[in-house]
User: What shape does this take?
Amino acid sequence: MTGARRIGLITNPRSRALREGRFALAEAAGGLPRAAPSTPDELRAVLADFAGQGVDLLAVQGGDGTLREVLSALPRAFGERAPAIALLATGKTNLAARVVGTPGPGEAGLAALRRAAASGALRQHRLPVLEVLRPGLDEAPMRGLLFGAGAFTAAKTMADEGLHGRGIHDRLAVFLALAGTVLRSIVQRDHALRAGSPMSLSVDGRPTPEGRRFLVLATPLDRLMLGLWPFSGDGAGPLNWLDVAAPPRRLAAALWAARRGRQQPWMPEAGYASGRAGRLALRLDAPFVLDGEVFEPGPQGLVLSAPSAVTFAMP
Assistant: This one.
């Protein structure tokens, strides 16, 4: 347990909850360095200013996408002395907050965080951070916690287009999008989703069989939402990865195995490969998802790793 010398506050001005007038921080934010950057350049400038002020605990009010942008901008602003992060979660899904915890999204949560920091009672959770590099593009790596491609991108699109617009968010949106994607893949045998996308995958320098992929996932987290855990845990490295060949076989049984958190003996033969690794290299043409946002791959594919870690703090 430890305290913090100085807290800085980052708020996402585009957060749905904040736009609706919920979770105002009011007096709880009094005296804190704070900012609501609306562009990546503004965020980098704010974080550099916070670093100059000696901020060592960063309160982030937003969702998984806000956290992704903060994690991506931290190395340039803070170098190797990254601050701890506390999540005042106000996003649609809030996966990170469900895993590492949150003091709450609004005034009461920030007040509790400040009291714990002042008294030296913060609890800390050290977690590897996923880095996604797009070789061939002149950019720094993106950093986040959950990568998905193939059916994962389809589920994200379904949530955005068919659920969030109807006011369905959080765990319910995740469940409905996942259920819809699985049902389409099981019931509609000729659905394009079952055909997957052309991808090649290399795990720690070892190529896997060429072909079309239905789903690829990677995360440094040790649990996901809805009680699902589709990873085997075999191998070494900070990244859990899953590779499902297309068309998916015995998909309902595989989903049940993920719900129980247990790989079954039949799964490798059926095209379900999983394990732990330090580095994944992918070649793909289709979009991918990183922490709730869809991106295009680089001209030379993607490289996934987790070379560093971040401390998350809770009262």
